[in-house]
Write a structure and sequence with these properties.
Helix content: 25-40%
CATH architecture of the largest domain: 2-Layer Sandwich
Strand order of the largest sheet: 5-6-1-7-8
Distance between the termini: 13 Å
Structural class: alpha+beta
Number of helices: 15
CATH topology of the largest domain: Alpha-Beta Plaits
Largest sheet: 5 strands, mixed
Order of helices and strands: HEHEEHHEHEEHEHEHHHHHEHEEHEHE
Number of strands: 13
Length: 425
Amino acid sequence: MADSGDGQREQAARLPGVEPEEGPDRIVLHVDMDCFYAACERLREPELEGEPVVVGMGYEPGDDAGAVATASYEAREYGVESAQAITTALERLPRRADADADDPEGTGLYRPVDLDYYDSVASDVKDILHDCADTVREVSIDEAYLDVTDRTDWSVAEGFARHVKQRIEREVGVVASVGVAPNMSAAKVASDHDKPDGLVVVPPDELRRFLDPLPVEEIHGVGPVTARELRDEFGVETAGDLAASDRRALADRFGERGPELRDRARGHDDRPVTPRGLPKSFSRESAFGEPVTAPEPKVEQVRTLAEAVADRADRRGALYRTIGIKAVEPPFDVNTRERSLPGPVADEELVVDTALELVAEFDDVPVRKVGVRVSNLSFTERNQASLDSWESDEGRAATDGTSRNRSRAWRPDDSDGQSTLTDFQ
């Protein structure tokens, strides 16, 4: 995953026809996946599209234990909400399996949380985000900030954001809401403003006009309790009211957080978009227009992806211990294969050859998407840049590992302080 060093070491390509400005305003995207867990379940079961779907944490089919992790918008119409007890959700939206099969109206489809699967889909989304921005801050499995100041310009920022949205929907199959603004907090407010499937762009000169009329609880960081206290004690109803409030009085009541929330209501937020830690892997994926069975298109695509992944790792100064591929059969049957190496390497030819060997298993299988990933990364000095540095036959031998619809980690014996990572999480 990218860090801010990329943007400092090299200028990213800008959109055609966009000239760099002197001291441009930052352009920040907040990408938030809509009902992500439910959207993932619909990828796996397309017949769930348009149905009330409830995904439960700690829930098992047929039981009433656990809590709601995600409710689709259709389920929310019946009063089902996140963090709600499954028992309460079932009272408001009975389980379809328990109802009259001939009369499904007013019933929902309940599924248990499958975090490994959701991680796999999220990884596909994040690959696109890192491809679209030099700096990405991943906030959670389904939410991220992108600083795209060096990639686009305010005159075409909406088109750039739409491109990101469309890539996610086209290549992964899930829907994102995107907010565009000059800073993180405003971009977050913008992405929430028109859910689901929203795209809201707030240029610098429109910030106050956009924020002022909003209910104060829509300002990032103002929760229900704070909103109630602001109303009761300060008469604050809207973001504009908060922006006009006395800074010292807010500080006396809420400490440092009070003036900070006032600044956000005024459209001020100077926090940079910074990544959280080093990347866990580098990967690229590509979907075919329709499932392909012949091996040649798969080979050509995997070769291109492998070269791109190796180049990306090289530019980031990363070594890798695991090389893997993904082959997705229709409708969304995810297969991963990986090969663990005896030590960290940086070798484009090895990545290409290994990926082609692994994908050969799917020569005669219909495939709708392929991907290549390198993982188990090290960012130490690159004393050994290829397998040629491993002298013994034993050192040259690689171990194969396979997995189907699950992830598998290779744990090196010689811990070098780097995290042990799971491929295609």
